[in-house]
Amino acid sequence: MVLQTIDLLKNEIPLDEESVVISEDNKTGLVLVDIINGFCTVGSGSLAPREPNRQISQMIDESERLARMFCDKKWPVLAFLDSHRPDQHEHPYPPHCLIGSDESNLVPALQWLEKEPNVTVRRKDCYDGYLGSIQEDGSNLFVDWVKTNKIQVLLVVGICTDICVLDFVCSTLSAKNRGFLGPLEDVVVYSRGCATFDFPVSVARDTKDAIAHPQELMHHMGLYMAKGRGAKIAKQVSLGALNKP
């Protein structure tokens, strides 16, 4: 029944995805959103998966593939890591990814990134990486990163498709439309490089203050909403050769 409902929804609000070739003609930056233990590693916290999850595993594999490609090219990479104070709550979610805990660290497959010179790591304390990049002096680390690296195309992967990824993409597109992010032209969300969590209604019904969150449905909705804000949705991403005159 659940799969039939998801298929019906996808027919009603279809999502057109495209194959994206990253050209060396355009300066491209890679953003990894919250690919950390607390959201991805089995048993690593209140919001971590309780058992291996195909969608999350695929997201990690695809994100690692792209990260290695970008690091081989010395292209700019920005990794957001969800990190909260103990007294900071994000209703309706329980405390998670506390500062200093292993929950707030990159998953094992990506920990090597912190030693790469082309990688910027930003620990954020809210869903939205754009807002989470505002520093004490009022500057914005993400905005500065885009401008310093002269990024024209932004490629986004991570978790959760419909929460932190979507919030960041929406804020970024709004800022681009207002002229705050020149020379940024396009924001691309890679569907296989994103994932969300699974909390079916059968479980949520018996959990206080819980909201049902079927994984496949919410993943589709997150991508659909991002496209509705102006993002490109990629079904596959590859590296293209430099177009010489």
UniProtKB/TrEMBL annotation:
Every Isochorismatase-like domain range: 29-198
Signal peptide residue numbers: none
Annotated Pfam families: Isochorismatase
Top-level taxon of the source organism: Eukaryota
Family under the similarity heading: Belongs to the isochorismatase family.
Name of this chain's protein: Isochorismatase-like domain-containing protein
